[in-house]
Amino acid sequence: MRFGLFVPDLNGRDATLLLTYLSGLTCTYENVMTKGGAFAACVEHGVALLMPDTSPRGEQVADVDQYDLGQGASFYLSATQEPWRAHYQMERYVVAELPALVESANLVHARHRSIMGHSMGGLGALHLYFRHPNCYERVSALSPIVAPSVVPWGQAAFRTYLGEDCNAWHSYDPCHLAQRCHGEQLSKAIRIDQGLDDEFLVRQLKPELFEQACAASGIPLDLQCHPGFDHSYFFVQSFMAAHIQWHSQNLSQNVKTTQ
Amino acid sequence: MRFGLFVPDLNGRDATLLLTYLSGLTCTYENVMTKGGAFAACVEHGVALLMPDTSPRGEQVADVDQYDLGQGASFYLSATQEPWRAHYQMERYVVAELPALVESANLVHARHRSIMGHSMGGLGALHLYFRHPNCYERVSALSPIVAPSVVPWGQAAFRTYLGEDCNAWHSYDPCHLAQRCHGEQLSKAIRIDQGLDDEFLVRQLKPELFEQACAASGIPLDLQCHPGFDHSYFFVQSFMAAHIQWHSQNLSQNVKTTQ
User: Fold this and answer.
1) Residues in B 40-99 with any Cβ partner in A closer than 8 A
2) Given CB atoms, is A234 within the 8 Å cutoff of chain B?
3) Does residue A20 carry a pLDDT above 70?
4) How many Å apart are CA B20 and CA B224, to the nearest integer?
């Protein structure tokens, strides 16, 4: 597995925050690295940015000739179905294995952890945040898939990786997870930015469903909608610095995150 | 010819400055558009960014199977040699035809113009600035080729496009142009940023030669050298905002630029 890691040069100080960025369909770890425009903000705010790939890779890894399934399209979950089960275990990789690797290799030591993502990566950030409440202090997303159980991208992926069990689907669906969440996560704000000229807005993204789910459970959601922006990395680049700043300014005084 | 143009949304106000960015060898107009990380700074400082291609293109256009000659490698000059003379007239295109096009199409109206570039584009920015003193108020460059007459990239290109006449070479060589320049350009600062881990620094770039030429003619040169940075777009991205700010803060009160 290849990944990107940006460690700010802070004159010997450690980065304060290790922020994981999950990319969208068809991306590798490289897209945000080259096109995200994130690094100046990382230096300014003392943030290390961890950029995993979007799926397992290699000739031995199951794949299918579709851009939205298989390699490049893991949906960051723990697959239970054949032939995916063997390698499509991105949940464990993102939440535990990769952070452990970069720490044990002394690449970065940060007191805080949070997560964000774009599109499919926004979905991954949201479900991993809800499913692992001790791993990430905060979550934010750019044009995320928030209701995978009811949109084509999510339905195809969940059927493929998780089978037909709707309980399994809901356990990775932010709209369901928001309504099940409890404790500190109920009072922590979530930030989402969404372009209003996003070509996938109506059919695949449906941010209003997550807005309703957060309202129903009392989670403060800061949903910012931007006229004129599409789904591309020009959109990501336009709001990346604001997300990095948002994460760095919302750190707990008492750090409780563990793996 | 394709090009990129970023026009900031300033709530109805015109951009103050039209800044032309010239790219380096092998690039198209797209590299800086996707990897430059320039647009937030353009909005902040009211700058429209014009991104030309690096050469003429197309099946009818002369080419050679080398990354540093022919298509993708015009050196932004006016070729006098066959078979290049017909299409390799990037000087006229960048200085006059393209700005006239974007203005006549009402894409942008800016009171000021300046120019910058990276590598071969840094060379182009410098020679066009010196050769057309009424066109650009300021020039800056990122890891530019400053002494083309004495480095392999420049010698190969000048021999190909300009023939063996050393006067023609010197008329596109910033080290020679700096020593010939007069009038207002003598007192206007030029900014150059250079990575010290740039793999082309010693053989192709030689910023010390331009430093000597500027010192000899009294041109204030702000040459900033950065340990740890290479020649890539990660370097460009790291200093792009500083260059956009620099250009926007050094505008004349009395605008005298013409085509």
Assistant:
1) 40
2) yes
3) yes
4) 21
Global pTM value: 0.90
- Among candidate residues A72, A45, A56, A223, the one with its CA nearest the CA of residue A144: A223
Q: Which residue has the tokens 């040069």?
A: A9
Say yes or no to pLDDT of B113 above 60: yes
The ipTM, to two decimals, is 0.83
pLDDT reported for residue B253: 66
Q: What is the DSSP string of B56-85?
A: --STTS---S-TTSBTTB-TTSB--STTTT
At A245, give phi and psi (nearest 5°). Answer: -60, -45
Tell whether the model's pLDDT for residue A146 goes beyond 80. yes
Cross-chain Cβ contact A233/B40 below 8 Å? no
**What would the mean pLDDT of A169-196 be, rounded to a whole number?**
96
- Cis-peptide, bond into residue A8, ω within 30° of zero: no
Q: What does the alpha-carbon distance between residue A90 and residue B47 come to, in Å, rounded to a whole number?
A: 42
Write the pLDDT tens digit of every residue in B193-241.
999 999 999 999 999 999 999 999 999 999 999 999 999 999 999 999 9
Cα distances (angstroms) measured from residue A217 to each of A114, A122, A178: 21, 20, 7
Sequence-ordered strand ranges (E) for B53-133: 112-118
| For chain B, percent of residues with pLDDT exceeding 90 | 95
**Chain B CB contacts of A228 below 8 Å:** 9
Contact check, Cβ <8 Å, B35/A34 = yes
Check residue B143 and report its DSSP letter: S
The answer to whether the CB atoms of A35 and B40 lie below 8 A apart is: no
B231 as an active site residue: the answer is yes
CA torsion through residues B113, B118, B119, B121, sign = negative
What sign does the dihedral B120-B123-B128-B129 (CA atoms) show?
Answer: positive
The span from the CA of B169 to the CA of B174, in Å, is 10
Residues of B in contact with A237 (CB under 8 A): 37, 39-40
Checking if the pLDDT of A200 tops 50, the result is: yes
Contact between residue A142 and residue A207 where contact means Cβ atoms under 8 Å apart: no
d(CA A79, CA B81): 62
